[in-house]
Structure formats: structure tokens, C-alpha cells
Amino acid sequence: MTRRKLVVGNWKMHGSRSANAPLLSGILESRPYTCDVAVCPPFPYLSEAAVALASSGLRWGGQDCSVHEQGAYTGEVSARMLAEFGCRYVIVGHSERRALHAESDGLVAEKAKAALAHGVTPIVCVGETLAERESGQTESVVKRQLSAVIHALAHCAGEMVVAYEPVWAIGTGKTATPEQAQEVHAVLRAQLRAATPRADAMTLLYGGSVKPENAKSLFAQADIDGALVGGAALKADDFVAICRAAG
Ligand code: PGA
User: Fold this and answer.
1) Residue in 130, 229, 234, 242 to alter for ligand 1 test, most ligand atoms within 8 A of Cβ
2) Under DSSP, is residue 198 helix (H, G, I), strand (E, B) or coil?
3) Which residues are registered as beta bridge partners of 59?
4) Which residue among the candidates 69, 94, 101, 155 is catalytic per the annotation?
5) Ligand 1: which of 95, 126, 228 to mutate, judged by most atoms within 8 Å of the beta carbon?
6) Are 202 and 158 in contact (CB under 8 A)?
7) Catalytic residue among 96, 103, 110, 165, which?
8) What is the pLDDT of residues 112-134, one digit of tens each?
9) What is the pLDDT of residues 128-176, one digit of tens each?
10) Residues whose CB is less than 8 angstroms from the CB of residue 75 and which lie 6 or more positions away in sequence, other chains included
11) Which domains does the chain carry?
């Protein structure tokens, strides 16, 4: 099956009003793209991104959301609020949040559910640490992480986007080889097939030091449908080159 590719820029806690404007216009000016393209800026910049990208065909999203609808949850942002700003996506379960904010598989699954309840597509991140890979646990770790989300989303599981991001490859310059990434993507696709009839239509992204130089060989793999890009998403030229590689 040919699936349309998706490239998502995860800006993490980077950016400023003065830096974002040329980045967004650089991405806009290089249209059209033959893949779907989205950016996920920090929350304060979402409204600016929404204005800049309105009617452009480009998409935007948040980097996290609360499991709650509203209430006394200082510092949290709900999926409903993201939907109000036109977010098409929200990243949930990024390894930085799992590690630095102690997010459990169960919490990540509830976040994915909250997103879908508001029509926002969750980009669910899974991935093993270096120690887990070296001790042969890669498959069991990613399956455990995905299984929690499949269980929580039940008949809507086919609606999520999954991003395989080996923790040891994030921001380190060490990309998984295309074969290493494909191996895990195939495991995830098989797990999804057992859970939803939409599995073969679902978008499975790879993330972890994706750059213009390695994007094409990653995108050539059977089950890699695009990328979640961190560092290289902060430079318009690099991000655009990765989007071109997906087309
Ligand atoms: P990186 O980050 O491309 O800088 O490795 C990817 C991510 O964390 O989503």
C-alpha cells in the first residue's frame, strides 16, 4: 500500500517570535509539497503559527496535552484548547516527557484518548533507551508502550499516528540505520494489524537525528511513512530538504 508521507517538526522548547517568522515563511515559500507537513511549536507560538499557516495546506500541532478537559491543573493545556487553535496534531509520550516528567504508559494513553476526543490526532511516541536496546528489550518495550495506547483507544486505535523514536538517537546525531528502524516499524505495524483494520493505512513516523542526508534512505523503508524531526526542524532549509526527500 502506498501511504502519503508526513513530516512533522517538533520544535521542542526552541524559538522566539523573531526566529519563528522566517522559519515559517521559509517553509511556506517552498510549497507545494508532495507530503503532508506540520510544525509543533511551543504553546505560546501556536496562535501565530495558526495565523501564518492558515489556508496554506500546512498543518500545526501541540507538543503535549493534558488528560483533563479543564480545571485546576496549573500549567496544563487541554486538547480542547489545542483544537480551538486549529491544531491537527498533538505529540504525546515523547521520551523527554516520559523521562523528565515521569509520564507512564497509562498516562500517555489517556492523553492520546483526550486528543482524539477533540478531533486532534495524537502522534504517539514510543522508543527504547540504549540500555534497553543493548539488553535485547527493544521489541518488548515498544510493544508495551503501544499496547497501552491501543487498549485505551479501542476501536479508534487506527486514528493515531505512531512515531518510533529510539531514545539513544534523539538529539545525539546517532540515527538508527534504515534497517534498524524498519525492523521496529514492522513490529509496530504487525501489532497494529492485530488491533485495527486500519493498520495498513496508518502513518508510522521515525524520529531521532533525521537530517537531509539520511531522510531519503529512511523514507525508502516499507513501513516508514515519514519523520518526526527535532533539531533539523529549526532550520527552514534543512526541514524543507527533509520534506522534499519524503516526496
Ligand atoms: P532530533 O529530535 O531530530 O533532534 O533527534 C527528534 C525528536 O525528539 O522528536
Assistant:
1) 229
2) coil
3) 38
4) 94
5) 228
6) yes
7) 165
8) 999 999 999 999 999 999 999 99
9) 999 999 999 999 999 999 999 999 999 999 999 999 999 999 989 888 9
10) none
11) 6-245 (3.20.20.70)
